[in-house]
Amino acid sequence: MFISGIDTATSYSLRMLADSMHALQRSVARLSSGSRIASIADDPAGAAISIKFDAEISRIGAARSNLSNATSFVQTQDGYLEQIAEALDRMSELSVLAQDATKSSSDRTTYNTEFGELEDFITATGSKAFNGISLFNGVALNVTEDSDGNTFSVDGVNLGHVDYTTLAGLSTTTTSNASTAATAVVQALDQVSSDRATVGANLARLQHTASALLSYQENMSGALSLIKDVDIAFESTYYAMQSLKVQTATAILAQSTTLSQSALRLLGVS
To answer: What would the pLDDT profile of 213-228 be if each residue is shown by its tens digit?
Structure first.
């Protein structure tokens, strides 16, 4: 009975040591990897959820990248439209100056040279592109707005609009021509004002959507962190506790082994 009791204690010590060693190894794995789920067995449900969260966070990042590119596209449009507005402003001024009866034909020709260059600038801008995509063909741009790939339309701007194209061929060489040009330029200014308002609305929508996606991504990342990331303070304490258990179990097992050997020697068993 005595030896049987010792053997039982030794067996129990071995089992406790094995359990503590296993727990210690898991704790080491968590601390070294920084992940609460060092093995799929640690939290199967959490691991499954984290896989889906990881994928969605990646998709959100891709959607944000798309939004960033669309924002750059629209900002580029606005930069050109701002220059067009300034060109039209100067053209409007030139067309009025050319109507001055005290100006000579030579003066009007000088005005017309600058007027024509500015009109050429506006016409040339109509063919500008962003990464091969036309900036001013009037076609709406479909932009990704979420991780599911849903899109919304960014209204296009068309520099082929009649209010712009009628500027071609106008001149300030006579007071009559200058008067006609002045009227056309005012209409073009109205159109560029409308186009810039459209671009501004597009930009506001893009910025709000990007901000909302960023907030969503941050919240998703926070939720994923709660599932995956190890709590260093807790895990360090747990590691210390398991380490102590291993040391204690090892000492007890050694003592149990010594008692067994002593009992056997007392019974004359070598």
So the answer is: 999 989 888 887 777 6
> Token pair of 139, please?
């076609």
Centre a 10 Å sphere on the Cβ of residue 73 and count the other Cβ atoms it contains: 20
Q: Classify 206 as helix, strand or coil.
A: helix
Burial of 20 (0-12, 13-18, 19+ CB in 10 A): buried
CB 133 within 8 A of CB 99: no
Percent of the chain past pLDDT 90, that is, above it, reads 57
**Tell me, which fold does domain 51-228 have in CATH?**
f41 fragment of flagellin, N-terminal domain (1.20.1330)
Domain map of the chain by residue range? 2-34+230-266, 51-228
Measure the CA–CA gap between 37 and 21, rounded to whole angstroms: 18
Q: What is the pLDDT of residue 52?
A: 84
Identify any residues that bridge with 133 across adjacent strands, giving them in sequence order: 130
